[in-house]
Design goal:
By secondary structure, this protein is of the alpha+beta class. 36% of the residues lie in helices and 27% in strands. Strand 2 and strand 3 form a beta hairpin.
């Protein structure tokens, strides 16, 4: 059992589970994202449906670049990260397609 717990921590949790300090950092990144010029441009053009902060140390980045804020719209997801090592502002650096056009939405449940 102890090997399982250690293995789970080594392989999964340490890469994706934020510490209490990292949770605070992530919570501060969301308002910085909403205040950014990139976010304001997205808000003008698309329907924003969700914002979520996350951490992924496995991407190979160094602090603070393994933190990210996903801004989901009804068309795609924009991924914001710190614009500098001091993380004074956030910028949109990546985006992904949200849903295939021939797929039906899963919500609302019916």
């Amino acid at each position: 059992m102890n090997l399982f717990v250690l293995g789970n921590w080594l392989l999964i949790e340490q890469w994706y589970t934020p510490s209490s300090e990292e949770k605070i950092i992530l919570s501060e990144m969301i308002p910085k994202t909403v205040e950014s010029e990139d976010y304001k441009k997205i808000d003008e053009d698309e329907n924003i449906v969700a914002i979520e902060a996350s951490m992924d140390r496995s991407r190979g980045g160094v602090f603070p670049y393994y933190f990210g804020v996903s801004v989901r719209t009804d068309k795609q997801t924009f991924i914001f990260s710190c614009s500098s090592k001091r993380c004074e502002t956030m910028e949109n650096g990546e985006w992904t397609y949200y849903r295939y056009t021939d797929e039906k939405p899963r919500l609302p449940f019916g």
